[in-house]
């Protein structure tokens, strides 16, 4: 231990941490626990080849025990008698004379036996041995020294990560589609980066949670990945990940034979095209002998595909399947995310949700045996609430993989805490009742229900170069939980979270309870303040998918429609009167969704078009539920910053502050969401909130009502994302403006929390100062570019709207509030309103 750490430890303070080690910190256990802990005397890893996961396991165990217990165990690669931790494959155990009990291990499974001075970790394969080692380390790191003996097998053979990293030929760094943690760890300037340290660290994280494969580039694939320099680079990536048992694959662009190969066609049945792909597969295999496979997005969102050549999607998938077949056990993951994004909303029966079943139902049985269909969990696109994709019930002769999203594209983009396992488990535990038999989604994607050899999980993760991997420390619980659930989808989501918390932040009960409570409240809260009753995430679907913009759902061909008008809302997806989507489910499920009475409230508007006054099972009307849910959800988010304060001093200051900043930000943005959605539907329906809250803000002073000097009033677009639909911005790009207001009779003398709502737009770092009676209460910068690590919108809108607090201010009527805003280029210090809040009030 370095002296500074010793000093901090002796003072009982947690050392600063940046999150790079995530849940693999191997933090020292308390001294008394360390002293009483006993582990065997040496580590025996039954493979001395440095690229072997068993060798890696030995090294990792050495490092872990050194950190956790301050013990420096010798590592050998040959079997010895006496006190030891032995790691190897079942075969290696047998060939070195170890007698193991009869085991029933499947691919990647392991057997772990911990008995006083003998620990044995036997993998069905080398990867399994590494997984068992991580399991043992996880126990040690959590101070768990119980003697156990058990076998553990993964639920499914495919447990992959998808990265949506771009090659970015011209930029210096590879950007990441829907990535919120900086540029790519794989690509820069159209090439594979030289230094692959982060890549191997990523593989380590993946291995520790049982993930065994990765697709490294965006599904919207750049053909240049297949040029000869990059093929060699792919070999380097695979080399960096192999010691961790992670196999690498890539996304392909269907048109590559034309764009890169200069052929006249990409027709999957054309002999020249077939030969072109055969050649590519041979070359890839030359660089990456254990190539995992290819991911293909075809005929979707303007991507080319076989339909362009009047061939079926199966023809397209089989083209790749046959090209890779001679080279090992690589697979084709063919995405079911195929749909037309130019459908016509005036057609009542048009429905994007129907697309996957329409396209794939008749193809069951037509795919080669090394093709697997990758299906997003819902039929639209990673929404806060969707029913399970009905396609899972239709592919009985084809392996399927469920596609989840760790990157929170529609769910707050890692700036909001949303713990996703409760959402995933709702999907995985859904019973499709195929042929009237129990058919849980998790049993379909494990391959069990339809007896498929190839099946499993893929999640879009999109880590970036930020030290925290996902841009947010708390968001990493989703990545951890993804691996744990892919291994065992019946695991308890709270138990997983508690393990993650102990490993990431320590075992203090307050830390565990605080993170558990906030995390378990987070998905319901987010659903409440974004989109309820199955209406989907009411975000800007033609923009960054972040802040509120419900009007973007309708009036375009993307098909994420709400069909909201002055009287009614929701998609009629019934068979009798609507798009027929509900009929895509097996009969028992179909009849549940076909009828309003049996459709659960949380999916009502997904399946039915109803008046705003429709009564829910709760007794509320649809519109009142909207209003109440938005107030309730935002109120929960307001408690997060306060809850987090309980762990101050218990976790290191660096991560404490970073999390605190995001939770405070989330609380403010949840109010933006609440007001935008409520104002929008109040405006549309003209139905008043029974509780009189919507459109009524007793403690606000609108910026447009202040006395302005150097500021001008603007209309904000979309209107509902500014209080009073207006805001102000400076009249120049260089000269400061001031906005002044006298506190009126609402404000009796007392202590107030002053909240300023402003817009932190992309393209500058404006500075602000707030004064009361000429005395400065504080300054701040519009620098979310730096602090949230991603750039929001260049305009004042629902993406950029945000709030800052100045708490505990003594004020009284007649006092003068003044804000000075100094523009910085395109960021013209925009302001929306000031709330002067009596203690405990939210407005
Ligand atoms: C969503 C997402 C896109 C992505 C697409 C896909 O539409 O917004 O960025 O390319 O899904 O999964 O292919």
From TrEMBL:
<keyword id="KW-0858">Xylan degradation</keyword>
<feature type="active site" description="Proton acceptor">
    <location>
        <position position="409"/>
    </location>
</feature>
<keyword id="KW-0378">Hydrolase</keyword>
<dbReference type="InterPro" id="IPR017853">
    <property type="entry name" value="GH"/>
</dbReference>
<dbReference type="GO" id="GO:0045493">
    <property type="term" value="P:xylan catabolic process"/>
</dbReference>
<dbReference type="GO" id="GO:0005576">
    <property type="term" value="C:extracellular region"/>
</dbReference>
<dbReference type="Pfam" id="PF07488">
    <property type="entry name" value="Glyco_hydro_67M"/>
</dbReference>
<keyword id="KW-0964">Secreted</keyword>
<keyword id="KW-0732">Signal</keyword>
<dbReference type="InterPro" id="IPR005154">
    <property type="entry name" value="Glyco_hydro_67_aGlcAse_N"/>
</dbReference>
<dbReference type="Pfam" id="PF03648">
    <property type="entry name" value="Glyco_hydro_67N"/>
</dbReference>
<dbReference type="Pfam" id="PF07477">
    <property type="entry name" value="Glyco_hydro_67C"/>
</dbReference>
<dbReference type="GO" id="GO:0046559">
    <property type="term" value="F:alpha-glucuronidase activity"/>
</dbReference>
<feature type="domain" description="Glycosyl hydrolase family 67 catalytic">
    <location>
        <begin position="143"/>
        <end position="469"/>
    </location>
</feature>
<keyword id="KW-0624">Polysaccharide degradation</keyword>
<keyword id="KW-0119">Carbohydrate metabolism</keyword>
<protein>
    <recommendedName>
        <fullName>Alpha-glucuronidase</fullName>
        <ecNumber>3.2.1.139</ecNumber>
    </recommendedName>
</protein>
<feature type="signal peptide">
    <location>
        <begin position="1"/>
        <end position="16"/>
    </location>
</feature>
<dbReference type="InterPro" id="IPR011395">
    <property type="entry name" value="Glyco_hydro_67_aGlcAse"/>
</dbReference>
<comment type="similarity">
    <text>Belongs to the glycosyl hydrolase 67 family.</text>
</comment>
<feature type="active site" description="Proton acceptor">
    <location>
        <position position="381"/>
    </location>
</feature>
<dbReference type="InterPro" id="IPR029018">
    <property type="entry name" value="Hex-like_dom2"/>
</dbReference>
<dbReference type="InterPro" id="IPR011099">
    <property type="entry name" value="Glyco_hydro_67_C"/>
</dbReference>
<keyword id="KW-0326">Glycosidase</keyword>
<feature type="domain" description="Alpha glucuronidase N-terminal">
    <location>
        <begin position="22"/>
        <end position="136"/>
    </location>
</feature>
<dbReference type="InterPro" id="IPR037054">
    <property type="entry name" value="A-glucoronidase_C_sf"/>
</dbReference>
<comment type="function">
    <text>Alpha-glucuronidase involved in the hydrolysis of xylan, a major structural heterogeneous polysaccharide found in plant biomass representing the second most abundant polysaccharide in the biosphere, after cellulose. Releases 4-O-methylglucuronic acid from xylan.</text>
</comment>
<feature type="domain" description="Glycosyl hydrolase family 67 C-terminal">
    <location>
        <begin position="471"/>
        <end position="693"/>
    </location>
</feature>
<dbReference type="InterPro" id="IPR011100">
    <property type="entry name" value="Glyco_hydro_67_cat"/>
</dbReference>
<feature type="active site" description="Proton donor">
    <location>
        <position position="301"/>
    </location>
</feature>
